Structures are given as structure tokens and as C-alpha cells.
Amino acid sequence: FSFVTLFGWQDFFEFDFKVIDDNLCIFAQHELGRFMYLPPLGGELKSETIEQCFQVMVDVNGAKGVTRIENVPEEMLFLFPKDQYLFSLKGYEYCYEREGIARLEGNKYKTKRSSYNQFAKNNSSQYVPYEKSMLEECLSLYKTWAESRALIYEDDIYRQMLEENEKVQQLTLEYYQELELTARVVVVNNKIMAYTAGFEINKDIFCILFEIADLTMKGLPVFIFSKFCQDNSLERYRFINVMDDFELANIKKTKMSFHPS
Predict the structure, then answer these.
(1) How far apart (Å, rounded) are the C-alpha atoms in residues 215 and 128?
(2) Taking a C-beta distance cutoff of 8 angstroms, is the pair 197, 183 a contact?
(3) Could you count the other beta carbons within 10 Å of the beta carbon of residue 63?
(4) 226 in Cβ contact with 116 (< 8 Å)
(5) How crowded is the C-beta side of 123, counted as CA atoms within 13 Å?
(6) How many Å apart are CA 69 and CA 205, to the nearest integer?
(7) pLDDT at position 247, please?
(8) Who contacts 53 (Cβ-Cβ below 8 Å, separation ≥6)?
(9) For the residues of 119-187, what is the DSSP string, one character each?
(10) Which residues 6+ apart lie within 8 Å of 133 measured at CB?
């Protein structure tokens, strides 16, 4: 529910913002049709408002199944009577206790702690704020990272996601100040080997938008994730949200390995 995520995908969707019954309604459109990226946002949400939103989509889509409202929180489902609407679980988002990732203490983090220490011991690195002058080097790292991922995983959805995310990351890194992103990089031998960025969801939760690391450097992914959670700018947050797993087994396995709370 952040402008950041809308902004990053503007090259792939045409977003249309409408106010219906004092609710902000965000429609997204591409070659397959129009859908709602989020449920109507604002004050009191009425069934009539939802019906109007569906009509706006049907006017474009006709009877095609693309007509839908995505990212409806579970607590809002009562607004959609089961005799009128179909539900489909899109997925879960992964949240971690920030201090747990920052400290990596205890037996459950034993393997992660070992990876962190291995990188720290074997590399003379700098963990520093991202600057706009680093954009091209970060994008070059992303391309190398994405190519290595595509060679390992043949899933078409995953490969398409890798391709699209290059443009998303370029946009968000270019306008990171305007978007009020917190972004950091890890430099080894004067070369950027990892970068990450995120934003505040609310006073308790910080969301990591992306994290990219040179996978040939053992322990680096754990190192930058933990260092980011140690960062002074994040210390006021209790939870770190790393979003969903796109229903892909390899991403789920990685995110589960950090023990979501």
C-alpha cells in the first residue's frame, strides 16, 4: 500500500487514479485488460463503491476474467459477500523481528551467523549509503545477478520477473530521494558487490523493496541483510517485511530460512 511500489511499475502498467465515494481507487491496465491494484482506500467503504469499481473494469474488460481487485487484506473480505465474489489467496508476506536478523543470535541463526562471519572475515568491506552516482554500477551488478539466476531456474514466470525488475530497480534507484527510500551498498575492493533499499510501511514495519548481492561471494547476502537490520535508520522498527515469494519454491525456501515471525 505504498506509492513506491506503484511508481516502480509504471513502465508495465498504465495507472489510473479515480476518487469514487471519497475513496481513492487505483486501476492498473495492460494489454490483457484493467484490474484494481489495491482495494478502494479512504474512509468508509461501501458495497456500492465496490460495485462501481467492478463496473469501471467491466466497461473495459467485458466478460474477461482479468476483472479483479488484488491485495485485499483478510480483514476486509467481509465487504465481499461470498454469493457475489470469488476469493483466491495471492500469498503471504514474510515479516521478521528486526533485532533477530540484526543480532543473528541463538541456535536457529547458527548457519546464518556462520555465513555472516565468513564474509566479514574474508573480505575487507565497506557498508555505506547509496548515492545516485552509484546507479550504473548497481544496475550492472543486477544484470550479472539476474543472468546467474536465470541459468539456474527455468521457471518462465521467474525469468520474466527477473527481466522486468531491472527496469523497476532502475526507476526506484534513480528517484530514491524523492521516494524517501533508505538505500545502502556493500563495497569490496572499490567495487559495489551488493545493494539494498526499502521504505517505511508504518511506525512498526519497514519494507525491503529489493536486495541484490554478488552470489560468488559467500555470506554476502546474509551480511547485507543483517547489516541493514543493524542500521541506525531502521532501529526504530520492530519488524522487517520482505514481501511475498511470488509462489516460487526457491524464493520461499530462502525467506523461510531466516525464520519469519
Answers:
(1) 19
(2) yes
(3) 6
(4) yes
(5) 23
(6) 24
(7) 82
(8) 20, 25, 36, 40, 69
(9) HHHH--EEEEE--GGGHHHHHHHHHHHHHHHHHH---HHHHHHHHHHHHHHHHHHHTTTTTT-EEEEEE
(10) none
CB 206 within 8 A of CB 200: yes
Taken in order 216, 185, 228, 93, the sign of the CA dihedral is negative
C-alpha cell at 73: 487484506
Beta bridge partners of 241: 95, 207
What crossing angle do the helices spanning 220-230 and 110-122 adopt, rounded to 10°?
100
Q: What is the DSSP letter of 43?
A: S
Note down pLDDT in tens along the chain; length 261 residues.
889 989 999 999 999 999 999 999 999 999 999 999 999 999 789 999 999 999 999 999 998 889 999 999 999 999 999 999 999 998 899 999 999 999 999 999 999 999 999 999 999 999 999 999 999 999 999 999 999 988 888 888 888 888 999 999 999 999 999 999 999 999 999 999 999 999 999 999 999 999 999 999 999 999 999 999 999 999 999 999 999 998 888 889 999 999 999
C-alpha cell at 145: 545477478
Which grid cell sits at 163?
527481466
Report how far apart, in Å, the C-alpha atoms of 206 and of each of 65, 98, 106, 108 are: 34, 9, 23, 23
pTM for this prediction: 0.93
- Give the CA angle between residues 18, 11, 173 to the nearest 5°: 105
